Amino acid sequence: MALQITTLAERPEFAASLWDMDHTWHPFMLHDPIADLFYGHATTLYSEYVLVADDDTEPGRLVARACMIPFIRGGADLPDDGWDGAIRSGTLARERNLPTDAISALEITIRRDLLGKGLSSLMLTAMRAQAAHLGHHELFAPVRPTAKHLEPHTPMHEYASRTRPDGLPHDPWLRVHVRAGGKIVKVAPRSMVVAGTLAEWRTWTELPFDRTGPVEVPGALTPVHCDVPHNHAVYVEPNVWVSHPLR
């Protein structure tokens, strides 16, 4: 497989099918309301910040995508609201015509049938290169550790600091970032927030959501907080900020 990775600006023909690629995102993950601030404009206003990949076996069929957004850091600590915070900051900067001084990764998504073939690492390398091409000296990433869902009750700071005997992170996706040159900076304790009625959560998860208290949801990194009397449930996802120096 010879992978071709370009920006969406270079290959706008992918815009129409960008979100049609078969993926492994759980349905509840698609209901963070902040997401629309970026994804509603990704193919138009952010085409230089979206990477697309196809290969020589099926040219023109999407293999993977990656998204970034410029935002305002202002020299401050990386935001506790991680993924949501980067999108909100980037959106406000765009709407108010303010200069940005940082760039954040938002996702790397691989087509379901090609998982486990090392494509995530290639997309991360391309993302770093594009961030540098756009003039940035550092790429930040609110990383969603891929194996954390197996331990929803383990605090993220404890999980993220766990290492193997060789010193690399225990989590496979954090390990890819560190091998690529990234450095774990801090936990973003409320990186993504998904709230919904109990009926919505039942639709998203096919779980009953009929008892007040924590609910373990497949794919969730922490339990979902269910409140039956008030007819809502809220998921607050922690991520891990990783910094990638580029120069």
Helix-strand layout with pairing:
Elements: E1 3-7, H1 36-39, E2 50-55, E3 64-71, H2 82-96, E4 102-110, H3 119-133, E5 138-143, H4 156-160, H5 172-179, E6 183-196, H6 198-205, E7 213-215, E8 224-227, E9 232-245
Antiparallel strand pairs: 1-2, 2-3, 3-4, 5-9, 6-9, 7-8, 8-9
CATH architecture heading: 3-Layer(aba) Sandwich
Please report the total strand number as a whole number: 9
Query: What is the overall pLDDT average?
Result: 97
Q: Compute the CA-based radius of gyration.
A: 18 Å
Q: Name the CATH superfamily classification.
A: Gcn5-related N-acetyltransferase (GNAT)
> Between the first and last Cα atoms, what is the distance in angstroms?
30 Å
Order of helices and strands: EHEEHEHEHHEHEEE
**H/I helix tally:** 6
State which percent range the strand residues make up. Answer: 25-35%
The number of domains is: 1
Q: Characterize the overall form.
A: globular
CATH topology: Aminopeptidase
Structure description:
By secondary structure, the protein is an alpha+beta fold. The protein is 22% helix and 28% strand. It is built from six helices and nine strands; from the N terminus they run βαββαβαβααβαβββ. Strands 5, 6, 7, 8 and 9 form a five-stranded antiparallel sheet that branches. A four-stranded antiparallel sheet has the order 1-2-3-4. 38% of the residues are buried.
Supply database-style keywords.
about 30% strand, about 250 residues, globular, alpha+beta, 4-stranded antiparallel beta sheet, 5-stranded antiparallel beta sheet
